[in-house]
């Protein structure tokens, strides 16, 4: 795992933990959003908005229906932030 990837994953985890008021250590890549303590639709929206601001990205509205785990969300953020598939994005 590169330093940028680790930093992004850690920052996403910290955003989630802060919004839910839980220790970051309780959040793993396999954690399902709907099973995290304190999660509701407004909290998920706040997590998305804070993530967009932190990484200067735009996350599609349907992401709450597609993404189920924290790991999937981290991968989406890395992709949108340009850390994954840089060549594929350039070819588009």
Write a concise keyword list for the protein shown above:
mainly alpha; Non-ribosomal Peptide Synthetase Peptidyl Carrier Protein, Chain A; 5 helices; disordered C terminus
Notes on the structure:
59% of the residues lie in helices and 0% in strands. The two termini are 25 Å apart. It is mostly helical and 92 residues long. The chain has five helices and no strands. The chain has one domain (3-84): ACP-like (Non-ribosomal Peptide Synthetase Peptidyl Carrier Protein, Chain A, Orthogonal Bundle). It is globular. The chain has helices at residues 3-20, 41-55, 63-66, 70-80, 86-91.
Q: How do the helices and strands line up, and which of them pair or pack?
A:
Blueprint: H1 3-20, H2 41-55, H3 63-66, H4 70-80, H5 86-91
Helix pairs in contact: 1-2, 1-4
Quick rundown:
The chain has 92 residues and is mainly alpha-helical. It is 59% helix and 0% strand.
Strand proportion, as a percent range, falls in under 5%
Q: What are the secondary-structure elements, in order, as H or E?
A: HHHHH
Content-based structural category? mainly alpha
Task: Return the average pLDDT rounded to an integer.
Answer: 87
* Principal-axis shape: globular
The biggest sheet amounts to:
none
């Amino acid at each position: 795992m590169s330093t940028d990837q680790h930093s992004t994953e850690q920052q996403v985890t910290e955003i989630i933990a802060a919004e839910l008021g839980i220790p970051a250590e309780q959040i793993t890549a396999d954690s399902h959003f709907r099973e995290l303590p304190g999660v509701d639709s407004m909290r998920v929206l706040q997590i998305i908005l804070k993530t967009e601001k932190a990484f200067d990205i735009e996350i599609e509205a349907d992401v709450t229906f597609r993404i189920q785990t924290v790991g999937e969300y981290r991968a989406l953020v890395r992709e949108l932030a340009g850390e994954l598939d840089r060549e594929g994005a350039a070819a588009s």
